Every structure is written in C-alpha cells, then in structure tokens.
Amino acid sequence: MSAASVYKALGDPIRLEIVRRLASCNSSTLGELSQDLGVSRQGARKQIQVLVSAQLVHLTQCGRITEARLDHATLQQAQQHLDQLGKLWDQRLQALKDFAESHDNDT
C-alpha cells in the first residue's frame, strides 16, 4: 500500500462514501452499496475495485453475492501518515510564529 494510492482512492466522493458506509456497518454487499449510493452495480464494482487496489477494501465472494469489508489497518496507516504531516506543519507554523514575534519585539 502506498499513501498516494490510498489518498487517490479516497479523492473520489463516491469512493469516500463507500469507505464511510463500510466503516459504520463493517461490511456490505455490492448490491446494497450500489442501491444506497444510487449507482449501477457495475459502477459500484468499478469504484470498489479502485479501493481494493489501494488495499482499503477486501472483497469476499459467496456464490453470487460479493461482500466488501474495510481494511482498517490500511486506513490507520493513512491516518498515521496524516498525523505525521500535521505535526510537521504544527512545528513549521510555530517556528513562523516565533520568528514573527521576535521581529515584532525588534520594532
């Protein structure tokens, strides 16, 4: 899993909604997702395949039913990556604030 593929997959509103739904209900069939999202079954499958490629979703086939489950570990890795970026930006903003305040005192 690369962080870029995860964020690219989450960049689409329909795929993001699929992840939200799977996070709230743990699993869902392809038919349920397509009905809930108002897209065709084939359209839902296409969007889910992008999530599968990013390792955000796992599919299980049981007869004619395809069940999708969220991969929480991949989502947690993406969250950790965002947390690290957030800390970096906090440090940079604090350094900028310190610099600005030190120059305010000079004037």
From TrEMBL:
Which positions are tagged coiled coil? none
Q: Which Pfam families match?
A: HTH_20
| InterPro entries xrefs | ArsR-like_HTH, HTH_ArsR_DNA-bd_dom, WH-like_DNA-bd_sf, WH_DNA-bd_sf
HTH arsR-type domain boundaries: 1-97
Highest taxon in the source lineage: Bacteria
Q: Which Gene3D superfamilies match?
A: Winged helix-like DNA-binding domain superfamily/Winged helix DNA-binding domain (1.10.10.10)
Q: Which GO terms describe its molecular function?
A: DNA-binding transcription factor activity
Specify the protein name.
Answer: ArsR family transcriptional regulator
